[in-house]
Automatic annotation (TrEMBL):
GO MF annotation: an example: kinase activity
SUPFAM superfamilies assigned: ATPase domain of HSP90 chaperone/DNA topoisomerase II/histidine kinase, Homodimeric domain of signal transducing histidine kinase
Membrane topology, from the record: Multi-pass membrane protein
Protein name: histidine kinase
Localization annotation: Cell membrane
Its EC number(s): 2.7.13.3
Organism: Sedimentitalea todarodis
Catalytic activity: ATP + protein L-histidine = ADP + protein N-phospho-L-histidine
């Protein structure tokens, strides 16, 4: 019971209500004591009126009046004359004097608490103002035992009532918490447990329905989490299936491309100038394709192989990429603008850098070609003190918002119809393998700019 939220709340509510009642108890007892003493003053004043009405009272009648008033004697000051109106045999000592005419709340509380914790019966003097302006002051002497007994009885009744109120309030709050808080929480936990058993089953997704704002926010957050996780699990399954398929395809494709390599030797021996110029490009392309298959590069593997770093002349790699893209049918009205120093060398894996630039340049060319208008693909490079910076820019229509949101997410970051988004994902992974970073610097109606940052040192940029 105490290990549950509602059980602990029940106990805490009872304690807090009792604490509040205790804070109320102290001034209540102080007020009771003040009322008790003022009541004794009023009784004493009424008893003294009997003497003022006649000249003499018998001793028996005077004792009966004092007993009824609950005092030992009554002193009334009228017209600046202080006179003993009623009296009885007095105890020898008066322990304290209390003047109710000027007593503040803290004084009354202090005196009341002292009386509760002093069990000894004492005689005290009490001074107050007569009612109905029947004099300047009235003074009586009383014993404290009856006062203390009345205070204890009153306090016990207040505490008993406080206990009843506390329990009743705690039970109501316990029921309210069970209905408004614990039950919805258990519902959310139940949804989580059912979802954990079968996360692929869409029926396990929670449907927010709570009318409580905080609970509704929790349900909305859980629904989003479940939806994102379900999509991630489905995508992981697709990637696993893709990896198995690519492994099989790459095996057979490698054999086919190996056979194609055997024919390139005869092509290189051709006397046709155009063939002789293009033959090395064909050989390099087939060699890269064979290497691609041998290493199962098409994102089907868990990770890309570590780059083999060496000093690479960037312009050679850029020329290979651009020459291949210029052969595409849709590149006739596309201009390739190169701003790369001929002698600029950087430390990278030549084949992986080629793949990164090929993906970026091909995406740029296809984006421009999709508009049907002429355009320009620009490749620029510069060397800084700590890194080499390569930018690939185009004058295409820019990336759609969904592509920007899922830029490096496979199967979600495609910018064109039929695109898988794998190119940017692979490129970003290859650049990270170099310790660098691939970022989208700009994308709007004027075009798109990607930047590759490759560090000169061993640290990540």
């Amino acid at each position: 019971m105490l290990n549950t939220l509602s059980g602990r709340l029940l106990v805490l509510t009872t304690i807090f209500v009792m604490l509040a009642e205790v804070l109320i108890f102290v001034p209540s007892v102080a007020r009771f004591r003040e009322d008790y003493l003022r009541n004794r003053l009023e009784r004493a004043q009424i008893a003294s009126l009997a003497l003022l009405a006649g000249d003499m009272l018998s001793t028996e009648l005077e004792a009966e009046l004092l007993q009824t008033a609950g005092v030992f004697n009554v002193v009334l000051r009228r017209d600046e004359v202080r006179e003993l109106v009623l009296s009885s045999p007095m105890p020898p000592t008066i322990a304290a004097t209390f003047d109710l005419r000027e007593a503040g709340p803290f004084t009354l509380i202090r005196d009341a608490m002292m009386r509760l914790f002093v069990p000894k019966n004492q005689v005290i003097r009490v001074i107050g103002s007569p009612v109905q302006m029947a004099g300047l002051l009235i003074e009586v002497t009383i014993e404290t035992a009856p006062l203390r007994a009345e205070m204890i009885d009153y306090g016990l009744r207040v505490l008993a009532l406080s206990a009843v109120i506390s329990v009743f309030t705690a039970v109501l709050l316990f029921w309210a918490v069970r209905v408004l808080l614990v039950r919805p929480i258990k519902g959310i936990v139940g949804h989580m447990q059912r979802y954990a058993v079968a996360p692929e089953d869409a029926r396990g997704l929670i449907h927010p329905s709570s009318g409580v704002v905080e609970m509704r926010e929790a349900e909305d957050a859980l629904q989003k989490l479940q939806t994102d996780l379900t999509q991630a699990l489905k995508q992981r399954e697709r990637l696993a299936q893709l990896g198995g398929a690519i492994a099989k395809i790459s095996h057979d494709l490698r054999n086919i491309l190996t056979s194609a390599q055997l024919f390139t030797d005869r092509i290189e021996a051709s006397d046709d100038p155009l063939v002789r110029r293009l033959a090395p490009k064909l050989v390099n392309s087939i060699t890269r394709a064979v290497s691609l298959c041998e290493n199962t590069l098409a994102f089907g593997r868990a990770e890309e192989p570590a780059p083999t770093l060496g000093m690479v002349r960037l312009l050679d790699v850029v020329d290979d990429v651009v020459e291949g893209e210029r052969l595409a049918e849709d590149s006739r009205e596309i201009t390739f603008d190169l701003d790369v120093m001929p002698l600029l060398t950087l430390r990278a894996d030549k084949e992986q850098l080629y793949r990164v630039l090929l993906n970026l340049v091909r995406n740029a060319r296809q984006a421009i070609a999709a508009t049907g208008n002429p355009g320009t693909v620009s490749i620029a490079a510069r060397e800084g003190d700590e890194a080499w910076m390569i930018t690939v820019a185009d004058t295409g229509p820019g990336l759609p918002p969904r592509a920007i949101e899922h830029l490096f997410t496979p199967f979600q970051g495609g910018a064109r119809k039929g695109g898988s988004g794998l190119g940017l994902t692979i490129s970003a992974e290859l650049v990270r393998g170099h310790g660098g970073k691939l970022t989208l610097k700009e994308s709007n109606a004027d075009g798109t700019v990607f930047e590759i940052c490759l560090p000169k040192g061993d640290g990540m940029v």
